[in-house]
Amino acid sequence: MTGFWRNRDGASIVEFALLIGPFMLVLFGVVEISRALWTRQALQDIATATARCVGVLQAECADDDGFSRARTETFIAGAASGRAVRMDAGATDIGRGVACDGLSDAVAVSLRAHFDSVFPFAQALDFHVRACFLDWSAI
Predict the structure, then answer these.
(1) What pLDDT, on the 0 to 100 scale, is given for residue 4?
(2) Cβ-based neighbours of 115, under 8 Å, separated by 6 or more
(3) Strands (E), 1-139
(4) What Pfam families does its record include (predicted)?
(5) Regions of the chain short of the pLDDT cut 50
(6) Is residue 42 part of a domain?
């Protein structure tokens, strides 16, 4: 029986089996946190681009009469789709001629998105971002 306890054959596989679970959890956790941060940054970029689009009345956010909410919503949906950010209906708020971050007569864009994780988090990860841009059409 003492030979069994002194035998070191297979020790590496036992150590590997004990460590692979925690290692994979840390690895996938880092990947998932990185995806969440990337999603939040992409949402912020979309809000900033939308605020600028409305502020300077780019063609994507305007029609013949000026500002177009429908075209702006389409712009947001396209930008979100291109960055693989899932946004629900009614997750946008666009304000024109408002005070925003010290700017008067600004465009304020607020966006909300839900982050879908492969891990079952107890608390849902919902992101809310806001961007401001001077409303050049009001000047």
Answers:
(1) 65
(2) 35, 36, 39, 40, 124, 125, 126, 127
(3) 62-63, 66-67, 92-100, 103-115, 125-134
(4) TadE (PF07811)
(5) none
(6) yes
pLDDT of residue 1: 54
Per-residue confidence (pLDDT) for residue 59, from 0 to 100? 92
Residue 1 lies in a domain: no
- Per-position b or e across 34-66, b if 16+ CB within 10 A of its CB: eebeebbebbeebbbbbbbbbbebeebbbeeee
In a domain, 5, yes or no: no
The per-residue pLDDT for 2 is: 59
In a domain? residue 46: yes
How many domains is the chain built from?
1
pLDDT recorded at residue 114: 86
Range of the domain at 51: 10-138
